[in-house]
Amino acid sequence: MMDETDSVESTNRRSQILRVAAEIFATTGYDASTVRDIASAVGFSNSGSLYHHFESKDAILYELLQRFWATRWIEINAILAKHTAASEALRNLVEGTLQATIDFPHEISILNKDSAVLATLPEFSFLRENESKSGEAWRTLITSAIEEGSFRKETDVDLVYRTLMGAILWGGRWFDPRGHLQAEQVAEKIWRIVFYGVATTRQTELGQNH
């Protein structure tokens, strides 16, 4: 029977394995990475020791990406639950998503680099489901921003969504926390570039007065 000390040590070791594996997957590529690579980097003398914590390489990645999406949905749902204007909710979503690329750089890299490989694995079908659900949340807010008069009626919802996501994902790659801009400032600049490009005349005038 595992006592409390053993349980804590096992939990800590699992967390260490996840951290190390995330970096290896992001750097080497999921398909090219091996259990032996991870075991060696963690400090195990043989790869068999890793199987005491995870049954396979797939299981490690599964937990990594499940944790990532669970964290993302806590934040997304909190933003959606607030009774704010759609444009303000979008602004908060831009900031939250940029912060996620900074907090989870390896997970974002894995999703970008290995999407084709993961799409062939049935156990990772939850990735497509989450991406689709997330995209729908963004598009719904953009549509609501049009309806509330913040965005022009002819605004292309899908194009705005893809432009925002592209800017955010690239922003996460070049952002340096040691630089002169904080994450929320970068998010604000990304938001202003896109928002004032699709804003109504009235909204543009309001922005220029701030």
Describe this structure in words.
It contains 10 helices and no strands. By secondary structure, the protein is mainly alpha-helical. It has 2 domains: about 1-55, Arc Repressor Mutant, subunit A, CATH 1.10.10.60; about 60-205, Tetracycline Repressor, domain 2.
Distance between the termini: 64 Å
CATH classification, class level of the largest domain: Mainly Alpha
The percent range for helix content is over 70%
Number of domains: 2
Count of alpha/pi helices: 10
Regarding quaternary structure, what we see is single chain
Based on the coordinates given, report the CATH architecture of the largest domain: Orthogonal Bundle
CATH superfamily heading of the largest domain: Tetracycline Repressor, domain 2
Question: Any idea what the shape is?
Answer: elongated
Compute the number of strand runs: 0
Radius of gyration: 20 Å
Largest sheet: none
CATH topology of the largest domain: Tetracycline Repressor, domain 2
Percent of residues in beta strands?
under 5%
- Pick out the low-confidence regions: none
The secondary-structure element order is HHHHHHHHHH
Overall mean pLDDT stands at: 85
Structural class: mainly alpha
In short:
This protein is mostly helical. The protein has helices at 4-28, 35-42, 57-81, 86-103, 105-113, 115-118, 125-147, 157-174, 183-198, 201-208.
Defining key terms:
single chain; 210 residues; mainly alpha; Arc Repressor Mutant, subunit A; Tetracycline Repressor, domain 2; 10 helices; 0% strand; elongated
